[in-house]
Every structure is written in C-alpha cells, then in structure tokens.
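We close this part of the discussion by returning to an individual protein. Part of our work consisted of pairing the sequence of a single chain with a tokenised description of its backbone. What the numbers capture is local backbone geometry rather than side-chain detail. The amino acid sequence and the backbone structure tokens for this protein are reproduced below.
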Amino acid sequence: MLKIHEVVPFAWPVPPGHSFMSRPVFFGSVPVHVQSGADALYGMSGININWPFSQLILAGVKTVEVRSYALGYRNVAQPDVEMWLVETPGLFRGSSLAALGSALLGDTVCGSQPQIAHIVGAVTFSTSHKYKHIREFHEDEERHRIVRGSRYDWRGRDQRYAWSVSATRRLTETIPQPGPKGVTGFRVPRSYHARFADGFCESRG
C-alpha cells in the first residue's frame, strides 16, 4: 500500500505549444494525468507558513524555517520533498504593521497580508538541527528573520529547530485554501492545476 511519505511530487515537463495533449505522471505509484501547456497538475502535501515569513522564504531571504520539532516529525514535512507553501494570515490577523514588525524584512516587499490562507508557491527543506541555547538562536536571526522580542521569538521554553530551505518556487497565481488544513498544513497530497514562475530559487540554509 502506498504510504503518504512515499509520495514524490513530480510534474512531467511538457514542451510549449501542446495545450491539448496529456501525459501520465506518477506520484509514487499513482498515475495522474497532466494537461500539457503552461499549466500542469501538481500533487503535494502542504505546510502552513505565516505571512510575511512566507514571502521572505519565496524571496530567498529567509533560509531557515523555525519549528518546535525536527524535520520529519509526524510526517509534517520530509527532507528533500517539495510541498505546497500555504501562506496564512498568522498571529496578527488584521494587523499587518504588527506582523511586519515581527520579521527582519530588509528590502523585501511582502505585499498585502492575506485575509484567508492560500497557496503561494512550493518549498523544499533539506535538513534540520536543534538550537542548543537562546544565544545560538538569536545569532541565527539573519537566516530565520525573527525579530528579537517579538511574539515569534524563542524565550527558552520548549525546543526550537532550524529547518534549512533548499529550494522554492513561486506560483504565478495563488490558490485559495478555505478548507480544513490543520495546525501545520495538510499531509494528504492535494492536486491543483498551477503555473510556476520560471526557475527555482535555491537557498543555502
């Protein structure tokens, strides 16, 4: 039986100008048909990331995602497996200034705070490591982009792990996600016809 963590998202490359042809694509051992042309069908699990950190990841500025568990825990995300990046309003819903103040933005333009969750792209993580102490966490702020003293800051309670971002892709049009997602996202892959902007953004987190 196919297990969720064995699903490998992949879309068959199609030459331009073949908008009426379809080809079989395999997610693990399950065949899915992809319409040729600019749009293709992609099936992936999804991970929730709060705005504006979602935009910093897509811009290649934030190269580390901070979680309270290691990469691979409970199959939330697996190393080297591409996932939908689900942008959520975050802790400061309706207060974009407070949300922007929690992140080291630099020169990055993050657009408007979303009103509902939506898929804005895809992200791949490679490895994770545990922060040993608060000083190490704060010294890593250029990678995780969390402002010291903000609501996202680590104050020593529980644990914090750095998930290294290895690649991202931005969608040309976002995909609304009004349905159930859970706290972390959704683990069962969802398929959508989507178009990615040209190229990958490779990170060195």
Notes: The chain is about 10% helix and 35% strand. The longest helix spans residues 53-58. The domain at 45-194 is CATH 2.30.130.30 (Archaeosine Trna-guanine Transglycosylase; Chain: A, domain 4).
